[in-house]
Amino acid sequence: MKCDMILAGVGGQGILSIAQIFGYAAVESGLYLKQAEVHGMSQRGGDVQSHFRISDKPIWSDLVPMGKADIIISVEPMESLRYLPWLNPETGWIVTNTNPFINIDNYPNVDELMAELKKQPRCIAIDGDGIAKEVNNARGMNMVIAGAASLFTGLDINIIRKGVEVIFGSKGEEIVKANLAAINAGWEFAEKNSKK
Amino acid sequence: MTKKKMMILGDEAIAQAALDAGISGFYAYPGTPSTEIMEYAQASKAAAERNVHRTWSANEKTAVEGALGMSYAGKRSMAMMKHVGLNVAMDPFVNSGVTGANGGCIVTVADDPSMHSSQDEQDSRILAKFALLPIFEPSNQQEAYDMVFDGYELSEKYKTPVLMRVTTRLSHSRSGVELRDPIAPNELKLPENKRQFVLLPALAKKSYRRTLENQKKFMEESENSKWNAYIDAADKSLGIIACGLAFNYLMENFDGVCPYPVVKVCQYPAPKKLIARLASECEKVLVLEEGMPMVEEALRGLLDKDVKVLGRMSGELPRDGELNPNLIAAALGLKETIGKDVPALVAGRPPKLCPGCSHADFYAAYVEAVKDKYGDGHLFGDIGCYTLGALPPFQAVNSCVDMGASITMAKGAADAGMFPACAVIGDSTFTHSGMTGLLDAVIDKANIVVFISDNSTTGMTGGQKSHAEGRLYQIVKGLGVDENHIRVVVPNKANHEEMVKVITEEIEYNGVSVIIPQRECMQTLRRKTKAAKK
What does pTM read for this prediction? Predict the structure, then answer.
């Protein structure tokens, strides 16, 4: 198996916690992994992305070749579209949060943005913040998106859940439980909405 | 027993390897994409137990000198920096090629092709060649780890510093790295020749000849290095030289089996025999290298004949910017795989100052006091978060050249008769390279206003400790600035009017004024508050 992902968002939104969970699951599953991150200037509220590759064979490039990504995982709707040139146009999925992060004057009209997302052939647009609140985890948007994206990674959801337990274990049982609920809610949403 | 494996960044692999190879001291100034090497060493338990030196240096020059001093004492050391940091360190770096080393000495430089977080994309391999040093350029995290061991061995075998060259995509990419058993650090041992490091002309001439003699041996080492390989293949219509990371991008396109012969180059000087064989067996040679066309240019030579060379200089690859699998596919004439275009409605999202940033409150006051009154064009900037003051909403900064240049450029402009001539520099950049320039201004009684926007950290690289340590007032006073014209203000909304007044007064003063807007970085403050809650 192989799964190439682009994780996208705005500097400070914390896309790397999603990578951490998937990274744990990939290693635990005996897979190879390469993950290129963005550090430095862009982290100050600019667009940021991480190339995340897992495979059962050795991986050469740290960067996902354009047109070859299996999933774009975005915590912000406009950012999900920025990486379309990387997405496999025949088979690739977009999994994105629908809540805009507006820190620029020329942010597009939100209705037009949603219409653009709807045009994408394989897209899970999910109200990550809303669903996180529903499961009493107001800061768990990332985990909702991670849960939804899990469906397309080829990773075992139980190992992903174990990853949440291990990675958030030091922060206490409450936080582990809240994040597991967010992961599960995201997963269920994606399962329902990917088989229309 | 299974070996210990870690999932770490390329930068972290280098730090871990240095620790496992018995390093006694890391010396560095923060700079993207090199910062994480020191941060990893600082967080390492093993480093703490062994009391390995791992505090930040004032700048890259002092870092290289510190590493060289530790090498003099017989121990293994490493200096780390970003590519432009090597410019600051060029004096000790180049001369270390002549003094040589005693204990193993590695200078690790992280280049930033495509300028993700830099003002240029120079190639450190060229500077190491200039300094007559051997170079290692890993293609992946495991090689980065293993090469540090080989780097120290080579350094001690020939008593020479070596360059470890990485680029952004390796520095900041994570992968599995298998660790070796740690080896013991060197004992303190002074150089056998107590004048080895004395570059008095009479002695330096001998040392320089020794360095030149070593070049032949460095070539032999490269030609026999396990990091350089001739990978044969049937189709001789093309031969490929793939340096460092470019090797991965090449293999990505062919799933690991390239139909053309390949010379993989990860240790320099570039292995002449392997490349000569490739050139003699193949019709054309394509050179893939991250950064500037160093190997390509050498291969072409001045006359550019005999061998048909393709690469960045002939347009098969772009002349600037980092490589990626698609660019190499295009150079090889493979099928284009790019996905759909970015929809037109997607807007650019440049970085900006954080909400509540003290620099922003300073700029608001500056704009009112100077830009609105005298127009745009009077503020020389420097390297740090505050460079973002060049972008909307302030659009107030008129230069960003190199560390410390704000003060000296303002002085030069004032010398030319420009009024007002102002400079903005951060606290960490000021102690890195601003102090000497301020001394120039004081000696010349230049009519400038210097703003040291003090957020008490090295902010842009993620909040490393700043050498100013709240002592800016004393430092500035010690450099000879008149006490009446050193003004400390707290940049916030409530103090806006006061700041405008202070700036206006100091502009009117004919001489050197230093205004220190002082308030902690929001990022470090948030982290401290969070840690305190725990």
Answer: 0.96
